[in-house]
């Protein structure tokens, strides 16, 4: 029976099972993806990543699955981890990774702190996407104590709620309700952000298809964009997530750059039983 080698990595505690599918694509059912994600009976992950071959001028194509088995278009922290793997493998300090969100460039000086050009945000209501026409700088949505979010698409859909103190919000309660609000036909990643000072924001994230995560790179991108739109931030900010800080910058070309550390936890082999979904 098939057994699949993997690497477990994380970016600020946003954790990934990474499979090299370049020579052979793994056959992963939704049941198998959920079984591997099980933190008691499987390995546990926020996202499972498959590195796939590509002919589109990038080093690889990166396929992204959430813990619930759904496929995501973008994942900032996993892009940083995969960039590190490719850099070490090829002995270079710049790589290009294709995702469903487009071609993303990764650069580094030391191969531990990786910066990804996450591309330009999309801000039209159809782009987020929303199910009705709205000003995405002020979406008419209230969920418990959360109201008036900014909608940002970083390849994947985000709603950013600004509050006085992000740490007092019951994210476990309100996050899942906001994620599936009918205004988000593809669901949404839900960010709760509060301004500490002009260059620092506290950020907590309820990730689509996962739940509360220790960090979310694309949410950090969405948040610096949203803060800039609302006049709360300039073009640089440090975002303090539960797992640590990410350094964000909006470039002159409008692209969002995200920098932070990566770490490798261990390497292993997925047991054939897990791949049948029998967790
Ligand atoms: N952890 C990621 C985001 C992963 C995808 C997200 N849950 C979605 O469904 O869009 C990041 O670092 O960006």
Automatic annotation (TrEMBL):
GO cellular component terms given for this protein: cytosol
Sorted UniProt keywords: Amino-acid biosynthesis, Cytoplasm, Isomerase, Lysine biosynthesis
Electron transport found in the keyword field: no
Matching Gene3D superfamilies: Diaminopimelate Epimerase, Chain A, domain 1
PROSITE patterns associated with the record: DAP_EPIMERASE
Residue(s) at site: Could be important to modulate the pK values of the two catalytic cysteine residues: 158, 207
Catalytic activity line of the entry: (2S,6S)-2,6-diaminopimelate = meso-2,6-diaminopimelate
EC class: isomerase
Binding site for substrate: 14, 47, 66, 76-77, 156, 189, 207-208, 217-218
E.C. numbers: 5.1.1.7
Keyword Transmembrane recorded: no
Active-site residues from the entry: 75, 75 (proton donor), 216 (proton acceptor)
One Gene Ontology molecular-function label: diaminopimelate epimerase activity
Pathway: Amino-acid biosynthesis; L-lysine biosynthesis via DAP pathway; DL-2,6-diaminopimelate from LL-2,6-diaminopimelate: step 1/1
GO biological process: lysine biosynthetic process via diaminopimelate
Cell compartment(s), UniProt: Cytoplasm
InterPro entries: DAP_epimerase_AS, DAP_epimerase_DapF
Principal location: cytoplasm
SUPFAM superfamilies per record: Diaminopimelate epimerase-like
Similarity comment: family membership: Belongs to the diaminopimelate epimerase family.
Quaternary organization: Homodimer.
NCBIfam families: DapF (TIGR00652)
Function text: Catalyzes the stereoinversion of LL-2,6-diaminopimelate (L,L-DAP) to meso-diaminopimelate (meso-DAP), a precursor of L-lysine and an essential component of the bacterial peptidoglycan.
Protein name per its UniProtKB record: Diaminopimelate epimerase
Protein source organism: Sneathiella chungangensis
